[in-house]
Amino acid sequence: MNKKSVTNLLIEYRSVLALIVLIVIVTAINPDFLSAGNITNTLRQTSVNAIIAVGMTMVILTAGIDLSVGSVLALTGAIAATMIGADISVWLTVPSVLLFGAILGAFSALLVAKGGIQPFIATLVTMTLLRGVTLVYSDGRPISTGFSEQADAFAFLGAGQLGGIPVPVWIMAVVFIVAWYILRHTPIGRYIYAVGGNAAATRLSGISTTKVYLFVYAASGFFAALAGIIVTARLSSAQPTAGTMYELDAIAAVVVGGTSLMGGKGKIFGTLIGALIIGCLNNALNLLDVSAYYQTIAKALVILIAVLADRFLDRKRPT
Fold this sequence. Notes:
Largest sheet: 2 strands, antiparallel
Oligomer: single chain
Radius of gyration: 20 Å
Number of helices: 14
Number of strands: 4
């Protein structure tokens, strides 16, 4: 293997290398980091951000952004808690809430595709709107799922285990496999990359960019609703302030995973690595008893380093 191939390989898998280095450093400082209990806890905590980041990846691949995912999580969580509290079947509640999340995402897509509004502004509007709707709907108070057989079945989605592995981790794995298949092996996956690479050329080639935008933003809303279900199920209640700043964590996972904010370039499993890096970093800072204020600063620095490294390595990539 020549120097050019080695350099390309290191650049291609830089996120994986960063994750390994992070794990080695933290383990050297605190060996408890690699204990089975801590790994399970880290994966469970990472799963919510990772699931949201899947939809965010699809949106960013089209050169867009979705700031509304945290608000979608809060509103759909409140709807789910209300339905379960009313003793409505889990089998009806979950699909209904997921569909509602997809519709909320599609609304953002219409603002972008038909309204001609920049994705940042469009989703900033929906983020604010949906947060307000959630506060009005819940009257600013938590909504309990109550005590019933349906509540117990619903709680399994957030707090249950299968084979010793938390259910949210299984859900995360399925979501990533499905997203990988869509992006890699379906026409809509190729169209998503094409729109991010050059939306005008894609439109001139006969592909409906409106349908692509509808798909990615609806998918983002769908996955945010799924995360809302998991959070609500784990807590057995919906918090009106749930999901605050989750959009930034999702964007961070996507960027750290190597997806370009300019669109058209990135891989879904890079996002998984990015989410794991953010999750491990959060867990490590907690283990090291670092103040929450400094944790926010550390996360911001990691994102900054990831973006700068991405730009630097792209220029250094052999041609």
